Amino acid sequence: MSRRKRPLVPGAREGLDALKARVAHVADPNQAKYEVASELHVPLQRGYNGQLSAHDAGRIGGRLGGSMVKELVRMAAQAMSKKL
Q1: Within a domain: residue 3?
Q2: Average pLDDT in the chain
Q3: Which positions carry the signal peptide feature in this UniProt record (predicted)?
Q4: Which pTM was predicted?
Q5: Phi-psi group of 6: left, alpha or beta (phi > 0 → left; psi -120 to 50 → alpha; rest → beta)
Q6: Residue 60 domain-assigned?
Q7: Nearest CA to 60 among 42, 79, 78, 80?
């Protein structure tokens, strides 16, 4: 379980949610984890998921977080190349 419920930068939640939706190819950021779970064939359902193993939950979060980091790095590299 994530220990931090809020971003380090105040007001960044909206931007992070938009990024999450973009990397998961969905319109609603709350739908992103379900899209990733279906791609990974993990039985994630709305509500209680006590039957879900920590391994499967980590696969979902890892795929989402990893994709978000990759996209942020790509965006930063693009912004740096424009400044040169």
Answers
A1: no
A2: 91
A3: none
A4: 0.81
A5: beta
A6: yes
A7: 42
